[in-house]
Amino acid sequence: MNAKATVKAVRSLAIGCALLGTAISSSALAQEFSYNGDTGPAYWHELNPTDWAACEGMGMAQSPINIRTVKPDNTLKPLDLVTFPTTIDIFNNGHTIEQRYEDTGTMIYFEGVAYELLQFHFHTLSEHTIGARHSLIEMHLVFGEMGGDTNLVVAQLFEAGQPVNDFIQALIDAGLPQKDGDETQTTDLIDVSDGLADTKSYYTYQGSLTTPPCSEVVTWVVLKKPAIVTQSQYQAFRRILGNNFRPIQDTADRVVRTTVRGGPWYKSRGNEKK
Question: Would you tell me which CATH number, out of the four given (3.10.200.10, 3.90.1010.10, 1.10.3720.10, 2.130.10.10), belongs to the domain 3-54+69-268?
Answer without folding.
Answer: 3.10.200.10
